Structures are given as C-alpha cells and as structure tokens.
Automatic annotation (TrEMBL):
One of its GO terms (molecular function) is protein serine/threonine kinase activity. Residues 16-268 form the Protein kinase domain. Keywords: ATP-binding, Kinase, Nucleotide-binding, Serine/threonine-protein kinase, Transferase. This is Protein kinase domain-containing protein. It comes from Absidia glauca (Pin mould). Belongs to the protein kinase superfamily. Pfam families: Pkinase (PF00069). InterPro entries: Kinase-like_dom_sf, Prot_kinase_dom, Protein_kinase_ATP_BS, Ser/Thr_kinase_AS. ATP binds at K45.
Amino acid sequence: SSSIGGSPTIQGPDQYELLTKIGDGAFSNVFKARDKTTGQLVAIKVAQKRAQIGNKKKQVKCTHVLKEVQIMRGLHHPNIVQLVHFTESKDDYYLVLDLCEGGELFHHIVRLTWFSEDLARHVFCQVAAGVRYLHEECGVVHRDIKPENILIESLPDQSEFGNVKLADFGLSKVIPGTETLTPCGTMGYTAPEVVTDQQYSKSVDMWALGCVLYTMLCGYPPFHGDHMIAKVVHGNYSFTSPWWDPISASAKDLIVHLLCVDPKQRFE
Ligand code: ADP
Ligand code: MG
C-alpha cells in the first residue's frame, strides 16, 4: 500500500503503472512505467526478492539487488542512469530509474552495423566521463561495461545521439579500502598491496571500454569465436583488413592502450 493514514507518504509500487517490458535478465525484468500522480515516464527494474537456483527446493535471498541500490544511491552524474526511487512489494524490489528511451547501445550498433569515428567518439567520451566519475569521485568499479549496459537517453534522430548513460550496477563494487586513501584517512598505514588492488580493480573497466570502442568502430567485438579465453589472456586481437583500414591511427592507438594485457601498462 502506498498510503499511511490516508496520506500518500510512501510511494509503493502501486504508484506506478507498468506499460511495456523493455528488458529482461535472469533475476529481473525492466518495464517502461508511468508515475500515476506526476505522469512522469520512468524505467522500473523489478527484481525478485527470492529466487530458486536450479532444481533445489530452497529459495535464496537476492541480496545483490540491495547492494546495487546502495551503490546507485550515491551516484549522481549526467552519464550514469539515475536511481529516482526504490520501493518493494511482498515478492519484489522495484528500482525506479530515469527512462532511457533510446535503449541499448548494442541495438544501435546492430542497426547501423558500425559507427563513424565521430559517433564512436561522441559515445565513448560520455561513457568515459561516467567511468571517471565512478572511479575518481565514488570509488566504485562497474565491472560489467558492455553495449547492453550503455543506454541512449532519447531516441536518436538519424545518427545523432544525445546523452549516453551507463546502466546496470548489478555487479559493481565499492573499491575496498578507498576511504583509507582519502587525505584525512590513515594513508600512512595502508599496505602497498591494498593500494595496488585498488588501482587494478579500476583497470577492468578500462579494458571493457577498449572492447566497447573496438566494437563500435567495426561492428564486431575484439575477442570472439573459438578459444576466446586464450585470446583474451594473450590480448590476441587484430585490426583486420579491410574493415580497419580507414580507421584513424589515433583511434587504434587508444584501443591498443586500453586492450593492454598488463594492467600496469593499461590507460587509466
Ligand atoms: P540486468 O542486470 O538484468 O542485465 P539491467 O539493469 O542491465 O539488468 O537492465 C536490463 C535491460 O533493461 C538493459 O539492458 C536495457 O535494455 C533495459 N533497461 C535497464 N534500465 C533502463 C533504463 N533506465 N531505461 C531504459 N531501458 C533500461
Ligand atoms: Mg545488464
């Protein structure tokens, strides 16, 4: 129920009218929805509170959703999908989010086959700004950056994309011990491996940014097909001719510095 003593003090899920399903995952469904009082359109990620794993009778609690919410509550940036409200019913959690009408970057790559360098730069710079905010201002690593989790705010007009936002904090983590690195913390007692771990945890997102940039420019991912794990481990990808021939040296150079196997050498 959304009211206590007749006044709508708590916005429950009844507050929203679910319209169409716009995304689904293993434990969640995302709907386009309307706030019944304001008429505002939103996206709502509905996630089960408990789930059955395999054919076991026992249900497990889906606490990862609460972690996702906890992290999202601290995030406010034009290139990060905003959590506007969090509520629950008996069986589900409801993450009310800013609606990105343009949908997934993934669909636009499929639709356009590949992006011009101008369009790829436009998207990349915004995603990178979101990642910089996460890493430098929030101490958060996303850990699942991919074209399915990059959303376009409004429906693109031809190939003109507007605002681009990073979504899905389901796998993200607070970088352990970041509070000890603040100037007022006890930095003097922090062990080198703690500092090193913190630096490396961010580098997974930088690798993923390299994969996204590569995919936008040619329409296929850098690592695919047989023996994919071995290819990733060795950083075995190529700028295949003829697709990569017209692409600028500076774009390739950026990819080379992001898809760098040694995280110490990788761009930050
Ligand atoms: P999952 O953890 O299941 O991958 P996501 O948060 O990635 O959940 O959401 C799944 C899909 O739902 C996304 O890939 C996207 O297509 C759609 N979606 C999620 N959030 C929004 C949003 N704010 N606006 C529009 N579509 C969204
Ligand atoms: Mg996702």
